[in-house]
Amino acid sequence: MEAILALEDGRIFRGRSFGAVGERGGEVVFNTSMTGYQEILTDPSYRGQIVTMTCPEIGNYGVNAFDEESRKPQVEGFVVREISEIHSNWRSRKDLPQYLKENDIIGISEVDTRAITRHIRSRGVLRGIVSTIDHDDGNLLRKARALPALISQDLVGRVSCRAPYLKRTTAGELWDGTPLRRRRSRFRVVAYDFGMKEHILTRLAEVGCRVTVVPAGTPAHEVLSMQPSGVFLSNGPGDPEILGDIVRNVQMLLGRVPVFGICLGHQILGMAYGGRTYKLKFGHRGGNHPVMNLASRRVEITAQNHGYAVEADSLPADIEVTHVNLNDGTVEGMRHRTLPAFSVQYHPESSPGPHDAGYLFDEFARLMTATTGPSTRGDADPAPAGSEPSDEPVVEPAARQDRPVRGQAG
Q1: Residues ≥6 apart with Cβ < 8 Å to 347
Q2: Which residues are catalytic?
Q3: What is the pLDDT of residues 203-222, one digit of tens each?
């Protein structure tokens, strides 16, 4: 079946459909990762976007039950040069076209993804339509130009959990399904869900955090009433400038509890400091972006997925830039000089991507130890290794409707 990708500036790309039948629109972006397409598809930060993979072949290891970052794919569409309908991997349970079809995601293959990528790098990100049902170029161009701008959409509200829930497991399962050994939780952490990746919760649990995940709009006083050892600000989609209420909540937390932010959480923290954000021309998306740690002078190869950045010159004097992007010099990390708060723009949990920056979760644990100390409220003894994970709702069972236990079917 023919499929068409139409960009708002008039460029048309014709290819072959795989996945669902239909029509979807969004901001067209590209990702430079060579593997990890299932994690990319299910990352809530991609809500509202059509993702083009620069790697020429996608789908060769199929789809499995362990690599999902949320309960379903979040992208608006998926664009590849060549799709592997024959897959080979001992973890695989189905092929990628079947997976997309089951989740109503449109895919288009046999298009020149190199040309799409070069065009976006030159023109910047563009709105686009991917369709298997309308083959009229003029119609598709009008639809693409009529799509709402990203700035006008509350994407965080679409992907955040509906009610708080408690993440009791320390790590869930390894990539091969083997249960990780659990340990007693040392810290009570409240995590704001702006579009939380499941593997972030896994990494927090691995350093001893017992995490209560709360909706994006949860007031600061409710978070403080939980007496957390620290607060985590998650990744998420969309423009941070429209999140004024969330920024004000974070401002009320600063100085009262240690704060760690990733990606959108980093941008929100920068705005809470008094800084500004701006939209990048084509964003940073992929598992191979070099970042300089200014303290150690070491280069970390990082996983990234963002279209906005914090403006360095807008930050007040009490904020120190700790990491910079070696490709374009943008701010990749910062910390407050006197308050217990720090953040990074990239994804230290990887999934997919290199593990160079995993130490940042240990830094969060050290910051909580130095500031508030381990929790003294007494957690129950952990379940023995090999037991089933058990995430408990804090308010009502419906709290878990958007977040399954990692490794379980959604």
Answers
A1: 197, 235, 262, 263, 302, 303, 304, 305, 353, 357
A2: 263, 347, 349
A3: 999 899 999 999 999 999 99
